[in-house]
Design the sequence.
């Protein structure tokens, strides 16, 4: 079975540009999570969805960040406009039944904002 | 505030046993998870303790004491491929918090 699929794997862009990260969760998983990982702050939960509905976006750092899940097999995380401090690895994960179940992570998107 | 504490680095010898501790100062959290992450890779799930006590999965075991806000991951018969970062995470129904991770170095 395919795992969580993220694209792109790497993204390098100039500050001020719009960045869109994409995620396809494991089929049948009702929960989807977006994380950001940096050396300084570790792994931070940004937002999560249950059955395509955003449940908690309190981890989203600023209004420049937005996430959508138009259907059960696709989600996006958008940063507009991007800033150098947004440089990080962004992970998408999915699970069958929320936080009490194992989360399956994608390979991540390594984002560099110049 | 809410925080998890785990050592930043641990070094052990191949074939030995190592324990990685995790303590937390959070309220309302009841489950403890462990994830492994190799350099450049994604976190992968290792274990989950929903109840106090010991959970064993092959060479790995995990322990939780909610009254002490403490848990640990025990790795036995260490192999070079176990060199990675290990993250503990505490959860409740609506939230999860990860520790900063422990980097495990294994010497031949």
Sequence:
């Amino acid at each position: 079975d395919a795992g969580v699929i993220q694209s792109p794997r790497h993204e390098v862009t100039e500050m001020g540009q719009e960045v869109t990260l994409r995620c396809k969760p494991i089929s049948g998983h009702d929960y989807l999570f977006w994380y950001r990982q940096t050396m300084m702050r570790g792994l931070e939960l940004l937002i999560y969805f249950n059955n395509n509905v955003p449940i908690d976006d309190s981890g989203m750092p600023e209004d420049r960040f937005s996430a959508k899940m138009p259907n059960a097999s696709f989600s996006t995380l958008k940063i507009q406009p991007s800033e150098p401090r947004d440089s990080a690895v962004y992970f998408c994960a999915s699970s069958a039944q929320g936080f009490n179940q194992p989360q399956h992570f994608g390979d991540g998107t390594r984002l560099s904002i110049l | 505030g809410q925080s998890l504490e785990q050592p930043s680095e641990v070094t052990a010898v191949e074939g030995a046993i190592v324990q990685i501790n995790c303590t937390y100062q959070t309220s309302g959290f009841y489950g403890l998870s462990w994830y492994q992450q190799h350099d450049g890779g994604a976190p992968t799930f290792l274990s989950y303790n929903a109840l106090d006590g010991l959970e064993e999965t092959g060479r790995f075991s995990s322990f939780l004491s909610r009254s002490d806000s403490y848990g640990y991951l025990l790795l036995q018969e260490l192999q070079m491929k176990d060199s990675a970062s290990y993250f503990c995470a505490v959860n409740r129904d609506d939230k999860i918090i990860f520790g900063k991770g422990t980097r495990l170095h294994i010497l031949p």
The interface with chain B takes residues 42-45, 55-56, 91, 93, 98-108 of chain A (CB under 8 Å). DSSP finds no helices and eleven strands in chain A. The mean pLDDT of chain A is 95.
